[in-house]
Design brief:
The complex is a heterodimer of chains A (231) and B (339).
Chain A (H helix, E strand, L loop, with lengths): L1 E6 L5 E7 L2 E8 L5 H15 L9 E5 L5 H18 L3 E4 L1 H6 L8 E7 L4 E8 L5 E9 H11 L3 E4 L3 H12 L3 E3 L9 H9 L18 H12 L3
Parallel strand pairs in A: 1-4, 4-5, 6-9, 9-10
Antiparallel strand pairs in A: 1-2, 2-3, 6-7, 7-8
Helix pairs in contact in A: 1-2, 4-5
Chain B lengths: L5 E6 L4 E8 L3 E9 L1 H5 L6 H23 L8 E7 L3 H18 L3 E5 H7 L11 E6 L4 E6 L6 E5 L5 H11 L7 H10 L21 H16 L6 H26 L4 E5 L6 H14 L3 E2 L3 H4 L4 H12 L21
Parallel strand pairs in B: 1-4, 4-5, 6-9, 9-10
Antiparallel strand pairs in B: 1-2, 2-3, 6-7, 7-8
The chains are: A alpha/beta (231), B alpha/beta (339).
Zinc ion binds next to helix 4 of chain B.
Chain lengths: 231, 339
C-alpha cells in the first residue's frame, strides 16, 4: 500500500509518501509561495525521487481544512482528481487534527491554532493521548475559546505556525496551564496526515469538498438581509 | 494519413464548470457544462469565493461525465487543455490544478489556453477558419476586435477602455430592476419595444477601433435620474432599446470598418454577448451587404464552455506548446500569439 499525503491548508506545503507503516519521503516547506505553483511540481519531484509512479499509488490522503480557502481548495482539487483518475480511495483528515498530531502523547489537551484575523482562529481541542476531539474544529473568537478551554481544567499544549501571534493572549488567559510546542513541531507533517488517514474511512471522491468551517461573507450578508426582511 | 487527435478541455474561469472532448480541434465528441447561475442569482452577480467552492464540488463529476459521454478512457486522449487565464483567480485555480493532476495521473501532455483564444476557436467547431480573419469578442468580461493572419496569431486592434459590453448590459439591467443576468432581458425588451430613447454613440478618436461603454451607461443613469426628478415615467423598454441601439451601432460600424481595412476573408463573433439578437441581426445584415462571410457560433458555444478550450488547445498542442506542473491560474493573462 502506497499513500500520498498532501496538506496545503496554510502557508506550509506538506507532502509525504508512505509504504504501509514506513515513511519513504517527507517534505515540509514553509515559504510564502502559491501552492498552485509549487504543490504539483513538488509531488512530481518527490515521487520521482522515491521511484513511485502515479499508477503505483494506492491511497490519497489530504488535509480537508479548515485553513486558507484557496489553500485547501488547491490540495483538495489535486487530491480528489488524483484519486478519481487513478481509481483509488481518498481519505480526508481535519487540517487541525494533522497539526494536533504534532503534540501526540502530551498528557492533557492539544490545541492547534490557525489565525483567522480579527481576533479569531480556526482551532479545536484534541486529547493528547488518543487524538480524539474533545472540542470540535471551529472558527471562533479566540479569547472566548481560550476561556472555555480553561474551564476544562487540563494542561493545554498549543501548536501551529501562527502561535506567535496569539502567545500573549494564551498566557494571559491560561497562565501556567499553557504549554507551547517547540518551533520545529509547529508545522503540519504529511506523515502524520497519512497515519491518521490510515485509521479513517475513504470518502466518496466526487462529493469530497473542503471543510471551510465558515460560510462566505456574501452568504452571511445575504442571510442577515433575509432575516431582517418581514416575511 | 495522420492520426486523429483527441483533447480533453477543462474550463473554470468564471461561473461554469465545464469539460469536453474534441477531435482534431473541430469536432465535439462531448461537451458538459455545469452552470452555477442559479446559485449566484440571489447575490445579483457572480461571487468569486462561491464560484470557487462550486468548482471544487463539480470538477471531477464534470470531467467524468465528459469522458463517459465521449465513451473514452483517459489513455485514449492525446492531451489535456485547460483555461490558464484570464478570469477569477480562485476559480481558475480549480481547473488548472485538476488538469495538472489528471495529466500527471495519466502522464498526458498539458496545454494552458487563453480564455479568449478559446472563444475565438469555438467557431472552428462549426466551420474551418479562413485567414486573414477578424474576431469580434464580446462578453461580460471582454469587448475586443482581434485580427488573425494565421492560426495562433492574435493582434488585438481594438478593445474596451472601461467596461466590457456585457458589463454595461448588466449594470443598465440592474437600474431597470431586471433580474441577473440582465443582458438577455435588455435584448428582449429592446426587441419588443415600440420606441427608443436616443443615447449618444461613443466613437472615440477618429480611426480608433477601441470601445468605451461607461459613458453610455452614465447617460442612461442620468436620463433615468432626471426623468424621476420630473416625476416622469419612462417605459423601460424604451431605455433598453435606446441603450442597445447605441451599443449595436458602434460595435457593428467598427467591426465593418476593420474588416474592410484589413481585407479579411472571414469575420467571426465570439463570447456570451454574441448571442444577443439585436447584435446578431445588425452584424449579419451589415456583413451580408459587404459580401464578407460572417459567422456566430450557436448559443451553447458562445457562452463559456470547454469545447472551445479543447479546440484552441488542440492547435497549440499541434504547434508543440506544452505546460508544466508549475502552471498557475493567471487572472490577468494577456492574449499572446502562439509562436
Ligand atoms: Zn468567456
Amino acid at each position: 500500500m502506497i499513500y500520498l499525503g498532501i496538506d496545503t491548508s496554510n502557508y506550509p506545503l506538506a507532502i509525504a509518501l508512505m509504504e504501509d507503516q514506513t515513511v519513504l519521503i517527507e517534505e515540509t516547506t514553509n515559504l510564502k509561495i502559491n501552492h498552485s505553483l509549487t504543490a504539483m511540481p513538488a509531488i512530481e519531484e518527490m515521487m520521482k525521487k522515491a521511484k513511485v509512479a502515479p499508477a503505483d499509488l494506492t491511497h490519497i490522503a489530504v488535509a480537508e481544512g479548515p485553513g486558507s480557502y484557496t489553500g485547501i481548495r488547491i490540495g483538495l482539487t489535486i487530491a480528489k482528481t488524483l484519486a478519481w483518475s487513478l481509481k483509488i480511495p481518498l481519505h480526508m483528515v481535519s487540517s487541525l487534527k494533522v497539526l494536533a498530531a504534532n503534540g501526540q502523547s502530551f498528557d492533557g489537551l492539544v490545541c492547534p491554532v490557525m489565525d483567522a484575523r480579527r481576533g479569531t482562529a480556526f482551532t479545536a481541542l484534541y486529547d493528547g493521548k488518543t487524538l480524539e476531539p474533545v472540542v470540535g474544529d471551529q472558527h471562533s473568537d479566540f479569547r472566548e475559546f481560550l476561556n472555555k478551554a480553561k474551564t476544562i481544567g487540563k494542561p493545554v499544549l498549543f501548536t501551529g505556525a501562527d502561535l506567535v501571534i496569539h502567545e500573549g493572549l494564551i498566557r494571559e488567559v491560561l497562565g501556567g496551564m499553557a504549554h507551547f510546542s517547540a518551533p520545529q513541531n509547529r508545522l503540519p507533517r504529511a506523515s502524520n496526515l497519512i497515519v491518521l488517514a490510515q485509521q479513517s474511512d475513504a470518502q466518496d471522491v466526487h462529493h469530497a469538498v473542503p471543510e471551510y468551517q465558515r460560510i462566505t461573507e456574501a452568504e452571511a450578508n445575504y442571510n442577515k438581509q433575509q432575516e431582517g426582511q418581514p416575511s | 494519413m495522420t492520426e486523429d487527435i483527441y483533447v480533453l478541455g477543462i474550463e473554470t474561469s468564471c461561473d461554469e464548470t465545464a469539460a469536453s472532448v474534441v477531435k482534431n480541434g473541430k469536432e465535439i465528441i462531448s461537451n458538459v457544462v455545469a452552470s452555477q447561475i442559479e446559485s449566484h442569482k440571489r447575490f445579483g452577480g457572480v461571487v468569486p469565493e462561491i464560484a470557487s467552492r462550486h468548482h471544487v464540488e463539480q470538477i471531477t463529476l464534470v470531467i467524468e461525465e465528459a469522458l463517459t459521454q465521449a465513451g473514452m478512457a483517459p489513455n485514449e486522449l492525446d492531451a489535456v487543455a485547460v483555461t490558464e487565464g484570464p478570469g477569477l483567480v480562485g476559480a481558475l485555480l480549480v481547473g488548472v490544478n485538476a488538469a495538472k493532476a489528471f495529466a500527471f495521473a495519466h502522464q498526458l501532455p498539458l496545454v494552458g489556453v487563453h480564455h479568449i483564444a478559446g472563444h475565438i476557436y469555438a467557431n472552428r467547431l462549426e466551420q474551418e477558419m479562413e485567414f486573414p480573419l477578424l474576431a469580434l469578442v464580446i462578453s461580460g468580461g471582454h469587448t475586443e476586435l482581434v485580427l488573425m493572419k494565421e492560426h495562433g496569431d492574435f493582434d488585438v486592434i481594438g478593445e474596451t477602455r472601461d467596461d466590457a459590453a456585457g458589463e454595461a448590459y448588466d449594470k443598465v439591467a440592474r437600474t431597470l430592476n431586471l433580474p441577473y443576468p440582465g443582458g438577455p432581458h435588455i435584448d428582449r425588451l429592446a426587441h419588443e419595444s415600440d420606441g427608443a430613447i436616443e443615447f449618444p454613440r461613443v466613437w472615440l478618436e477618429e480611426g480608433s477601433y477601441d470601445f468605451s461603454f461607461s459613458g453610455l451607461k452614465s447617460s442612461v443613469l442620468n436620463y433615468l435620474h432626471n426623468a424621476a426628478q420630473r416625476g416622469e415615467e419612462i417605459p423601460p423598454e424604451h431605455i433598453a432599446a435606446g441603450f442597445q441601439n447605441s451599443v449595436v451601432e458602434v460595435v457593428t460600424a467598427k467591426a465593418v470598418r476593420a474588416a474592410a481595412q484589413y481585407k479579411v476573408r472571414q469575420v467571426i463573433a465570439a463570447g456570451g454577448v454574441a448571442a444577443n439578437k439585436g447584435l446578431r441581426t445588425s452584424l449579419t445584415a451589415a456583413f451580408d451587404e459587404k459580401g464578407i462571410p460572417f459567422y456566430i457560433p450557436p448559443l451553447a458555444l458562445c457562452t463559456d464552455n470547454a469545447a472551445m478550450i479543447a479546440a484552441a488547445g488542440t492547435v497549440m498542442f499541434e504547434k508543440g506548446i506544452r505546460g508544466t506542473m508549475a502552471m498557475n491560474g493567471r487572472p490577468g493573462m494577456e492574449l499572446a500569439s502562439w509562436t
